Amino acid sequence: MMRDLERELQDTLTEARDGNGESRDGLLNLTRRMENEEEDQLDVDLTILDFLVYKATELVFEWRASSDPYISDLPNALVSMTADWRTLLRYRHHGRRLDNRAAFRSRLLQFALVFTHRFHHDETWTTEESLNELREQNKSRGDYWKEKTRHPPALRHPFDQHREFPLDDGALFENRNGLASALNMPHHQRRWVSDVAGTPSLHCLLPLFIELTAARVTLDDDWLPTSEWFDLAGQFMLQAVIEEFLQNGVYGADQFNTVFAFGCPGIDRWAEEPSDVTAMRRLFCDENNPREQNRDWTNVKRRYINELLPQRSSQSSLQAIQGAQQRYPYSAFERHLLSFLKYLHDGLIKPDLAQVEEGRINIDGNELSEADSREMIRRMEL
Question: What domain of life does the native source organism fall in (predicted)?
């Protein structure tokens, strides 16, 4: 006779409960408590992580605004602790994801960290593998833009690369060293000047910047990129071209076109669409017509492309890019970008622990008075 396993299970569950239907002391009740404790522990761990990410991001901005950030690396210890805590959580909670706001804060820290450290002598917070992945991502996006969309290439008349590009190694080194001097970097802290492959380029960081902004759009608080953001994105691309051609030894129209291969695709989504293409749809497509590009972006993009092109027949492509470099110094762009990142950081509701630390509680975007905040903290026995 076959055993009725379903019936046996039901009998076991019945025996595990008392006359009122409540769980008896024992395995079932203990398991339920353990499950609840696991969820509670996850909440606690994520709350701590969000706080660490917030404090680390604050420290990155504080360090970068200091008088001489190239000598020390103030955020290093806290960032390392935050990374270790996240690794621990990944194993402890089997890869459970952060909520959207905490995930965005974490993404913001990662971008701010790499951008501010890309010229750092000792630590860039990247690996050769991750940089190669970003380079491959850029190449794939450039191919997608050329093969899948109907947009014309940014550079319609290719450079005479045999006459102008690539620059020789001596000129490239001199240009990189010139930037280091313009940024007041100590001579003994210029590893990146001779390590192009190991230095995160602006071109590498460009898709991360686009995806970071797109992630901000998805936080469901009606935030949208402004005309000022479009201008910053255009500056980012202009600076990336300057860096690639004058400092990194890039040549050819494909590299130029790939840097500017951002906009509204104008075609239907396709299976397994890359993350940077999805981000472009959120940022660059017309709000009322998702197949049309935002006109503001079209104008901004064309303006910055033109800034890099010869303005008269006697001007060479090299002279045009050098002229753009003089009109748009890197230091000014760096300040603008850091200001935008700080704006993103300050615009988010602070983590719960940061609110408690500062004694000001924010509930669903509404900040309580100092007195009400103190009373709430007292009731929470914190």
Answer: Eukaryota
